[in-house]
Design a protein that fits this description.
This protein has helices at residues 16-27, 45-58, 83-89, 151-162, 175-183, 213-217, 219-226, 237-240, 247-256, 262-280, 292-301, 352-364, and strands spanning 6-12, 31-38, 66-68, 78-80, 121-123, 126-127, 166-170, 192-196, 231-235, 244-245, 289-290, 306-311, 313-315, 329-331, 344-350. By secondary structure, it is of the alpha/beta class. α1 packs across α10. InterPro entries: Inosine/uridine_hydrolase_dom (IPR001910), IUNH (IPR023186), Ribo_hydro-like (IPR036452).
Length: 377
């Protein structure tokens, strides 16, 4: 049988699970990865660009274009990575296995009397000075000349060219997608998006236990995307927390991987994340690390891995009486009375066993491939 080609354009804040998602896409038969846009989130945008290039090179996919996306959310003038993300992804974003990146590891609460370094600063989604703002470095990382290409214009161009023959995969904040829709509103009815983010039936993974990390980074962007009229599938914590990669699977990778295999580096990254998640929540993540971004990547290629409910959705943009909790993804009640309000395909069920089998097998395909550079671990 001929393998159907699925075109994918990704927007990623490349940390550990983004790297594993890239490996899944690179190994998947029939996946044509048109490009990757590096954005802020787990790390600063320039670091995401460097990490993406490194991972693609590791996988023998260095020809895939890597472009720069948004450096900060729509509501802020600058971005500082959060210490929580550094704990889950390491100071370099790749569990200590990536290329050297700028910034100082470590964390400390923002002093109450500290002034923002430049304008309005987001610290992992929280305004500078907020009690929950806990930076992984003390000032915004400067822009990097190595990340000059405009990924948002590229996104617009590719959607106009391919329409729904292209799937946009967003595994970080939705700022890139929202900005593309702002620049080119005409692409909305032609845009197919699979987003990793949000939570409808589960607690969130931020301080308030309501919001999910990617959405709280830029709730305004998420809300615009939900209401844009694009074809949006939300792959949130409702399903990703049911797909855990455990240490046994990683040990099997190691047993198959030679010293020069990229699979060994991916295993090092996964081991870092498994330990970090277990430390954070020994009950929920006793079985391993949640495969947030790899599941979204898999759904971009095979939507049958999840079952969805079509709902009018919104993202709360502030915490106040009558506004809910900032970053929460919840049904938009106007959809109850207005059938024209756009619907989102919200993933609530997942064939976890099938996905985990596909994921482990496809990454094992890299076992016999030579790695272009020695591991940084």
């Amino acid at each position: 049988m001929a393998t159907m080609t699925t075109r994918v354009l990704a927007s990623m804040d490349t940390g550990v699970d983004d790297a594993l998602a890239l490996a899944y896409l690179a190994a998947a038969p029939g996946c044509e990865l048109l490009g990757v846009i590096g954005t802020y989130g787990n790390v600063a945008m320039p670091t995401a660009v460097r990490n993406t290039r490194y991972v693609l090179s590791l996988l023998g996919a260095g020809q895939v274009p890597v472009l720069a996306g948004s450096a900060h959310p729509t509501w802020a003038d600058a971005f500082v990575p959060d210490a929580g993300c550094a704990a889950f992804h390491g100071p370099d974003g790749l569990g200590g296995c990536g290329p050297a990146s700028g910034g100082t590891p470590g964390a400390g609460a923002v002093p109450a009397d500290a002034a923002p370094p430049v304008g309005v600063v987001s610290v992992g989604g929280y305004p500078w000075g907020d009690p929950h703002a806990n930076p992984a470095r003390t000032a915004p990382q400067p822009e990097d000349g190595d990340a000059a290409a405009d990924g948002i214009d590229f996104l617009v161009e590719q959607v106009r060219r391919h329409g729904r023959g292209l799937t946009v995969l967003a595994t970080g904040p939705l700022t890139d997608v929202a900005e593309a829709l702002r620049r080119a509103p005409d692409i909305a009815p032609r845009l197919r998006l699979v987003m990793m983010g949000g939570s409808l039936t589960q607690p969130g993974n931020c301080w308030d236990a309501v919001a999910e990390t990617n959405v709280i980074q830029d709730p305004q962007a998420a809300d615009r995307v939900f209401h844009s009229g694009a074809d949006v599938t939300m792959v949130g914590l409702d399903v990703t927390h049911r797909c855990l990669l455990g240490p046994d699977a990683v040990r099997r990778w190691r047993g198959r991987a030679g010293e020069a295999s990229p699979l060994r580096v991916l295993a090092d990254m996964a081991d870092f994340s498994i330990l970090a998640n277990r430390r954070a929540d020994p009950a929920l993540f006793a079985g391993g690390m949640p495969l947030h971004d790899p599941l979204a990547a898999a759904v971009a290629l095979d939507p049958t891995l999840v079952t969805t409910v079509d709902l009018a959705m919104r993202a709360e943009t502030r915490t106040a009486d009558g506004h809910g909790v900032r970053g929460r993804t919840i049904g938009d009640p106007t959809g109850l009375v207005d059938p024209a309000v756009p619907r989102t395909h919200v993933a609530l069920g997942v064939d976890a066993d099938r996905f985990l089998g596909l994921f482990a097998d496809r990454l094992a395909m890299w076992a016999d491939r030579a790695m272009p550079a020695p591991s940084a671990c």
